[in-house]
Design brief:
heterotrimer; A alpha/beta (about 475); B alpha/beta (about 250); C alpha/beta (about 475); A: alpha/beta; 10-stranded mixed β-sheet; 12 helices; about 25% helix; globular; C: about 475 residues; alpha/beta; 2 domains; 10 helices; disordered C terminus
Chain lengths: ~475, ~250, ~475
């Protein structure tokens, strides 16, 4: 690498996080630490029915017996689970009916993030369920959706208004004892989104939530539940930005998706939590359990993710292909820079016959980061004629980072066809020179090439997201080298 | 020779051919034409015995034998050859060994001894010349890395080597330049005799200038909607398929 | 000979045996080796046998192997047969210098230590401790430092004998050296040996290593082979495994490559109850190349596990892994190929491919093609596939008149041929080719007629398909 490239690389990899600021709002906060009393406090604060409290307590007792997973290719300081606030809610003056009743400071925060609710509402036609430190502030477009029978609300509201649905489906895909972080989430989850699409309904708009972490030392434990009834369709978008903090913050969300017969769910994520500074201080620990179940025949679940943020990412959006002819898809771009570490991928569990899965993963590592793809493709004995295709590519920018691929392929049925391909490469000098010769600066050339590299995944994002994702890729990498 | 009666063929429960009738006698050349997706290739697969295609009704008899009872290799040994529209690549299996194995298995089926090596080699040389391919191609794995034209020539080469009594050529002419087309036609015309029959499946009249058919059939929506002599092909070329749809 | 008391677990039995006989086991040791042995024994007692909690052992369960009782010789056993009977190989035109490991102990017509006219020294490990003590001490120290699993420690504690080969600088072996490991015993046998092959600068060696069993008696082999390639050394290494269905082999092979050395290693698994190959390649110098190939054909309840770890430690290295397998009946095949490109191993090229054909729904494949990369100017790729024979190709072949069975055979053979064709010693390639054909035709799934020691005269097999022309 020559000097010019070096300095360019420095410039880029030293770009600071652009979304760091803190909003000052009065909080109602539970004391630090975790025990059964805190869980009872959360549950009573949220006026939850008995079954949910029981579920939380069971999960908590399971969690006590579990230990944090250590198999991932990640190194981080252990989390002190007693040094976290498990409940924080903005103090509500009253029930909010209109946007102008929302705390103006809050609205300003969203505006700084470029996701003003009003803008969203007026211009983009996207219904936004904004989650601001654990409690849903405002849900828009609910009237439109109500007419179609679509339920889209905060998790807490769903617990109050649709307890039967919550009771039937919550934990059916990610059981409370599934893993350490899922158990923790089940015990202490604060709020999140709930979505039910009735039989035969095609949701006409992209459903969206934006997540933020705001208060210092506040754990964020979101819970999302999406149920697509027979023959329905929904595209759901989740996006995150978080303000700068010095201490590591824990994020342990759970997302469950259920697709019944002929239903289709597309779940898109742009994740840009605070990654820590360039020395590796601070940043979010993102330990997320996302799983979908194609319960009915011919159902389809598709995960698309653009992961640019967080100091540590541990995340494997998965699909259990139970219904015959069901389809699971995973499209991912993961970018790590500075000291970020990501261990992310997917699991495709083929149970039904004629099930099909596709995995496209693009990892981009820069700085001193480590980026791992970890995936499992499992074809069980009874899964006749299952098909999987996986492609996992890594791009290295700079010689201090790492890019790893850990695919697991387990096949027990002879009619299966499973193909896995992976490559690792860097941006070639030839490619850069070619661009430069045509008058494109190295920085732009890299942006161009990286975006081209990620295109296969980006094209699966909804339009509104694709633009943001492209911007994010450029911001995260502008200048990361060749 | 080949009698198809009220044939119905489905693939994965989707009906492609319904109620097709066709008789091909020894010495005849039949052309089957028709727009895309009308079941031309399906007919070829059904005769050759591809298990993905299910015969749900009717019958195909070849020289008095019900083909339904025969495996693809038995049909081949009975003298049926299918020139594939998309010949399959088989890495690791050399052309030479592939053909020799095929010839010997067919001979075994007919109660003959394996072909003596000198005879086999002479036949290879003769037919390579006929279709204009060289040893570079025959030393490679079956169809692996062949160009589109080479694959089609290779089908004709195999046909010449195997000397079938009924050859079905599924769009062997598609994607060929005029020189390659002549090679294909030469190969077919060489096979033509009073004992053999040929079915040519094609989109275009072009090939039929070189292989003059005795009969032309138009296949539409899984059945033969019109039959005629070679002039029908010209008529189709002129008017297109639209006028048949009424 | 040591009769082991039945009521103890294998680990307890081994502990008991070691403690009672450590003086005999270590009778040839130098103080350093004795020390390494002692430490290894303690580590084995801490670690025990590997369990499926270890990432590298999650798909291979040793329970069945460990549930049996085994005898273990602590001094060389008496021969049941003439030495010359053990040193026969009937591969036509295969001119090799043959040495044998009889139940793990070195056997040769030429005595236990010779220097060949070309300068190559061949002998038993026990002798090597006397003649090349430092080299053997280093080997025991290296294995002693590795903490991968308890089996390696166990070997370091017990191994007394094995093959030692020393190829001096600039010497090219004028003959292929062949090692035949023979298990022949009327009771269950545990054997642990250590082979050490040292190659000097710019030396060349062709080495063929066959594992065989003479009867159906269960045995458990825990063997380690270390091969050190000096600067510019070139080795062609072949391993053929064909043991009975009741036996287990854990074979660990460690290659250390210095600059500009070239390694080619090729393993063929034809039969065995449980076969596990741990292959480690450390590229310790620049500009090394290594080709690591494997072919496995398993059926019944057989279990084969190939673990390959290539460590690119220095720049300009090239590694190529190609493993292919056909899995029938209830058999299970495991593959874990791990390419680790270290930070300063720039300009590395690493390729890895694992392809499997499953013939039944009772058969299982677990494949994990891992890449771990810390250098940016590298080209690495891997691929893994699991599938069945190509249906389209099958139909195409049948449509030319070739029977279903032969079409299937043809495709399976073509699948395997890619690996067989990488064998560069012609007589060996032809023999492997023949064995694979027999194996695919189901004519070779018992090992009482051991591959390289067939007592019966070789019959030429006539194929319906002349597959030699493929």
């Amino acid at each position: 690498m020559d000097n010019e490239e070096n300095s360019l690389l420095d410039h880029i990899t030293q770009g600071e996080y652009k979304y760091g600021f803190v909003t000052d709002i009065e909080m109602e906060t539970a004391p630090k630490g975790l025990n059964e009393d805190i869980i009872r406090f959360i549950s009573s604060k949220k006026k939850e029915p008995e079954f949910l409290l029981e579920m939380r307590l069971t999960a908590y007792r399971e969690w006590l017996k579990m230990s944090e997973p250590r198999w991932a290719h990640l190194r981080y300081k252990p989390v002190d689970y007693q040094d976290i606030h498990y409940y924080a809610a903005p103090k509500k003056k009253q029930e909010l009916q209109r946007l102008d009743e929302v705390d103006p400071e809050l609205l300003q925060t969203f505006e700084k993030l470029g996701i003003s609710l009003e803008e969203q509402k007026r211009l983009t036609g996207v219904a936004v369920d904004a989650v601001f430190d654990s409690v849903s502030v405002k849900t828009t477009f609910s009237e439109t959706l109500e007419k179609l029978g679509i339920i889209f609300c905060s998790f807490s509201e769903a617990v109050q208004k649709h307890p039967d649905l919550v009771r039937e489906y919550m934990g059916s895909v990610v059981p409370s004892n599934d893993n350490f972080f899922a158990a923790l989430n089940t015990a202490v989850f604060s709020d999140g989104s709930f979505c039910y699409i009735p039989r035969g309904v095609r949701c006409p708009i992209e459903l969206s939530t934006y997540f933020r972490i705001n208060a210092a030392r506040t754990g964020q434990f979101e819970r999302t539940l999406i149920i697509a009834d027979e023959g329905s369709y929904v595209s759901y978008m989740e996006g995150c930005t978080a303000p700068m903090r010095d201490e590591n913050q824990l994020h342990a969300a759970v997302v469950e998706i259920i697709a019944l017969k002929d239903a289709e769910v597309k779940y898109s994520t742009v994740q840009n939590w605070y990654p820590g500074d360039k020395e590796g201080r601070g940043g979010i620990y993102n330990f997320v359990t996302k799983r979908g179940m194609c319960r009915g025949s011919h159902s389809r679940i598709s995960w698309t993710q653009v992961e640019t943020g967080s100091a540590v990412t541990w995340k494997y959006p998965s699909v259990i292909l139970l219904g015959d002819h069901s389809v699971g898809e995973f499209y991912s771009v993961a970018v790590t820079n500075h000291h970020q570490q990501a261990d992310t991928g997917t699991k495709m569990i083929h149970i039904g016959s004629h099930t099909k899965s596709t995995i496209i993963s693009k990892g981009i590592s820069a700085g001193r980061s480590n980026n791992s793809y970890r995936g499992l493709v499992k074809i069980i004995k009874r899964a006749q004629n299952a098909r999987n295709f996986s492609q996992c590519d890594s791009l290295l920018l700079g010689d201090q980072c790492g890019a790893h691929t850990f695919p697991y392929i387990n096949v027990e049925n002879k009619s299966a066809i499973v193909e896995h391909e992976a490559t690792t490469s860097k941006i070639s000098d030839d490619q850069l020179f070619y661009c430069q010769q045509r008058g494109i600066s190295t920085e732009n050339a890299i942006g161009l090439i990286v975006n081209g590299y990620a295109k296969e995944v980006l094209r699966h994002l909804p339009m509104e997201f694709a633009v943001e994702a492209q911007k994010l890729l450029s911001i995260s990498l502008e200048g990361s080298v060749g | 020779m080949l009698i198809i009666k009220d044939l119905n063929v489905s693939i994965q429960d989707k009906k492609i051919i319904s109620g097709l009738n066709l008789e091909v006698k020894a010495g005849e050349v039949h052309a089957i034409m028709g727009p895309n997706g009308t079941g031309k290739s399906t007919l070829a697969w059904a005769i050759a015995g591809n298990e993905a295609y299910t015969i749900t009704g009717g019958s195909i008899t070849y020289r008095g034998r019900d083909l339904k009872e025969l495996s693809p290799e038995e049909r081949a040994s009975e003298g049926i050859f299918l020139g594939f529209q998309y010949p399959v690549e088989i890495p690791g299996v050399s052309m030479t060994n592939f053909i020799r194995t095929a010839i010997n298995e067919q001979r075994k089926y007919r109660g003959l001894q394996p072909i003596p090596a000198p005879e086999f080699l002479a036949k290879m040389e003769e037919n390579k010349k006929l279709v204009g391919i060289d040893s570079k191609l025959t030393n490679r794995s079956v169809n692996e890395g062949f160009s589109g034209g080479e694959k089609k020539k290779n089908e004709i080469f195999q046909m010449a080597m195997l000397e079938p009594t009924l050859a079905i050529l599924d769009e062997t002419d598609s994607g060929l330049d005029i020189d390659a087309l002549k090679v294909v036609a030469n190969g077919v015309n060489k096979l033509r005799s009073k004992d053999n029959a040929i079915i040519v499946i094609t989109h275009y009249q072009r090939l039929l200038e070189y292989i003059v058919p005795d009969f032309v059939h138009v296949l539409y929506k899984g059945r033969i909607v019109k039959s005629g002599g070679k002039e029908l092909a010209l008529e189709l070329e002129e008017k297109g398929y639209e006028w048949l749809k009424n | 000979m040591e009769q082991i008391v039945k009521t103890m677990s294998l680990k307890e039995q081994l502990s008991d045996q070691f403690q009672r006989h450590r003086d005999i086991i270590g009778r040839n040791d130098t103080p350093l080796i004795a020390q390494a042995r002692e430490q290894a024994f303690h580590r084995f007692m801490e670690q025990g046998f590997p369990s499926d909690h270890l990432e590298r052992w999650r798909n291979t369960d040793l329970k069945r192997t460990l549930s049996l009782d085994y005898d273990q010789d602590i001094v060389a056993p008496a021969l049941n047969t003439e030495v010359s009977n053990l040193l026969r190989c009937n591969i036509p035109h295969f001119d090799t210098f043959l040495v044998s490991l009889y139940n793990g102990w070195y056997i040769s017509e030429n005595g236990s230590w010779i220097t060949r006219p070309d300068g190559i020294v061949i002998g038993s490990l026990a002798q090597a401790i006397k003649h090349f003590s430092t080299l053997v001490e280093e080997s025991f120290a290296r294995i002693g430092q590795a903490t991968r699993n308890g089996l390696e420690a166990l070997n370091n504690a017990f191994a007394q004998d094995g093959i030692f080969i020393y190829v001096p600088d600039h010497v090219s072996a004028d003959q292929t050296i062949q090692i035949v490991s023979m298990v022949d015993h009327d009771r269950n046998l545990l054997l642990q040996n250590r082979n050490l092959i040292i190659m000097g600068k710019n030396s060349r060696l062709k080495l063929v290593h066959c594992d065989d069993s003479l009867n159906q008696q269960p045995s458990f082999t825990n063997t380690i082979t270390e091969i050190l390639l000096g600067e510019g050394a070139v080795i062609d290494h072949y391993k053929l495994q064909n043991i009975n269905d009741n036996s287990s082999v854990i074979s660990t092979t460690l290659f250390h490559q210095e600059a500009n050395s070239q390694l080619s290693t090729h393993v063929t698994v034809l039969n065995g109850g449980l076969i596990r190959n741990d292959i480690y390649v450390d590229m310790e110098g620049e500009n090394c190349t290594s080709d690591i190939c494997g072919l496995y054909l398993v059926d019944k309840n057989q279990h084969v596990d190939n673990q390959v770890q290539v460590n690119h430690l220095k720049p300009y290295g090239t590694s190529n892994q190609l493993f292919k397998g056909i899995i029938d009946d209830h058999a299970r095949a495991v593959f874990n190929g791990h390419v680790h490109v270290h930070r300063n191993a720039q300009k590395t090229n690493a390729y890895q491919s694992n392809k499997n054909i499953l013939l039944t729904d009772k058969a299982t494949v677990n494949t994990k093609p891992f890449l771990e990369i810390y250098a940016d100017d590298v080209k690495c790729s891997h691929g893994a596939t699991v599938g069945q024979l190509d249906q389209e190709a099958l139909f195409y072949i049948r449509s030319r008149g070739i029977s279903y069975d032969n079409a299937r055979l043809l495709l399976m053979y073509a699948f395997a041929a890619e690996v067989i064709n990488k064998i560069t010693i012609e007589p060996l390639r032809l023999r492997m080719d023949d064995l694979v054909k027999k194996r695919l035709r189901g004519e070779l799934s018992i090992c009482d007629q051991c591959v390289l020691h067939c007592r019966t005269k070789e019959n030429t097999v006539s194929f319906d398909i002349d597959m030699s022309k493929i």
